[in-house]
Backbone:
């Protein structure tokens, strides 16, 4: 992206991920992610005209301060670990969420609302709904606190109004009056419910639910889930922004809500896209199916057969699943559809731990030959030994 960064002992981002930084799928007019982004922006601008400013080109390389500290992440929060996050070096990382830009945009007090869309990066497992890069839209909305000054509510009334069952676990912040917290939370919930009703307008009998959640940067907090193929699928995290964040960005006079929504999850449902790798496809049979402004159902062009290969090894104590996933991604790229742990045991005498993974190889656009998969699997076996310190069995 036109800038040099020195590597150091924190560097854990590899070439296959770096390549993705320049793709900017959410800015390609006929891409499903861009179509979804435009649909939500359009809906939000109709709901509250002139309130939301859209931003979609912020640099994915941010400091740990922006991604974590400014959002009040605890010093030992697992999200900070290099097993979960891609570090460019000790001082720079690939944003793990769009919330990384909250403190920057809040400091600029010229707008009461933001819709911020971006690619985000996380080290994660390998399957049809997880990919090291995905896209989020962050919504932020702030209100002048003085407008709630005349309103009174008891804490119990406010918790009941916003649907919080346990006020000790998911509290109203001590800096907020119950009435203002409830007003902001209800605005948040109705805004998000209207977003999903709009996005899934064609689906009859859509089922969704609010779960109480914990995020370091909001309280109370919730996530919203929709029912998909009999499973609850998490679509957003959201909540009332911690007042310390408002205070630290020069907004003591304001109170706000924020949400972060996963665009792929929603787009997979809307467009019937069965595998998250397809979003990255440059195959014309994928790209030619979508047109700006229209929601169409994806017509699969491939049911190419999968090819399974197992790999088992003794693991060192430092072994982490995500390190293994990363090697699979670097070596096999997008022909790895899933890497699933199928067996795990500890030897009763030696105490050594063993793991067995089944790798499902499948290309979106062709049938893989056994010889080709064998060659990839062999390179994977060597790379896991070198990079994860395992002993093959
Ligand atoms: N950043 C969170 C994530 O990626 C999602 C989120 C939760 C964003 C709550 C928010 C929020 O703005 O208020 O998991």
Residues:
């Amino acid at each position: 992206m036109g800038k040099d960064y020195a590597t150091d002992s924190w560097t854990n981002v590899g070439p296959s991920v770096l390549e993705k930084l320049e793709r900017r799928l959410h800015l390609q007019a006929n891409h499903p992610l861009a179509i979804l982004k435009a649909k939500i922006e359009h809906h939000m601008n109709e709901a509250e005209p002139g309130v939301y400013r859209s931003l979609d080109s912020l640099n994915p390389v941010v400091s740990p301060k922006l991604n974590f500290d400014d959002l009040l992440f605890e010093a030992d929060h697992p999200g900070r670990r290099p097993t979960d996050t891609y570090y460019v070096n000790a001082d720079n990382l690939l944003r793990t969420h769009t919330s990384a830009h909250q403190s920057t945009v809040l400091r600029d007090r010229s707008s009461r609302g933001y819709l911020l869309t971006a690619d985000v990066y996380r080290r994660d497992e390998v399957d049809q709904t997880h990919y090291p890069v995905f896209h989020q839209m962050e919504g932020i909305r702030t209100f002048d606190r003085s407008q709630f000054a005349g309103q009174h509510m008891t804490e119990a009334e406010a918790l009941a109004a916003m649907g919080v069952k346990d006020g000790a676990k998911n509290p109203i912040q001590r800096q907020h009056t119950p009435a203002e917290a409830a007003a902001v939370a209800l605005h948040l919930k109705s805004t998000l419910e209207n977003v999903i009703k709009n996005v899934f307008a064609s689906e009859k009998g859509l089922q969704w639910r609010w779960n109480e959640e914990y995020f370091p940067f909001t309280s109370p907090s919730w996530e919203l889930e929709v029912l998909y193929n009999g499973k609850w699928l998490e679509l957003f995290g959201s909540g009332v922004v911690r007042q310390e964040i408002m205070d630290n960005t020069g907004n003591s006079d304001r109170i706000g809500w924020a949400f972060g929504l996963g665009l792929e999850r929603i787009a997979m449902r809307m467009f019937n896209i069965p595998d998250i790798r397809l979003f990255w496809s440059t195959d014309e049979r994928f790209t030619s199916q979508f047109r700006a402004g229209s929601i169409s159902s994806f017509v699969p062009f491939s049911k190419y057969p999968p090819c399974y290969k197992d790999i088992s090894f003794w693991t060192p104590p430092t072994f982490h699943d995500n390190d293994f996933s990363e090697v699979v991604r670097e070596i096999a790229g997008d022909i790895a559809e899933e890497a699933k742990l199928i067996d795990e045991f500890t030897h009763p005498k030696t105490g050594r731990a063993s793991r067995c993974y089944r790798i499902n190889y499948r290309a979106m656009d062709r049938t893989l030959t056994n010889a080709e998969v064998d060659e990839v699997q062999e390179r994977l076996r060597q790379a896991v030994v070198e990079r994860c310190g395992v002993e093959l069995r």
The mean pLDDT is 95. Residues 15-276 form a domain with the BirA Bifunctional Protein; domain 2 fold (CATH 3.30.930.10).
